[in-house]
Amino acid sequence: MPREVHKAVCYVLHDDHMLAFTHRDVPLTVTGVQVPAGTVKAGESPEQAAVRELFEETGRRGHVVRQVGVQRYDLRPMRDEVAVRHYFQMAMPGADVTERWSAGESDSATGGPAVVWDCWWLPIAQAHVLAAGLGGLLGTMLEESS
Could you tell me the pTM of the whole model? Predict the structure, then answer.
């Protein structure tokens, strides 16, 4: 039986764009296009994890607008794990959707060297390219926002 790990997923929206990133030193075919997300730590709420993960992964601050929903994602065979993903719509006031920047953090999963990625603003209409089911509740969020 795979272990369950609670994750926070950040849908940071600004001017019909969504904050996304790609890994700089890992092929796109391995990691795909992602949004900020990560493990909810002990004693932390999923909402607190979303705010923390956004900052850790992008170096930028934002806030939760609302919770969109929860979805299970089976990571097998890559890992014997089911991610219980808590999705949040988030805002980053003053964002510039033309900006691209580099960010990174040490690899907490392996304890290895820092992982570096390129952050950029993906037009929401193209968000179907998100990897590993990360776009799973995007349509629901947009439908509820209208």
Answer: 0.88
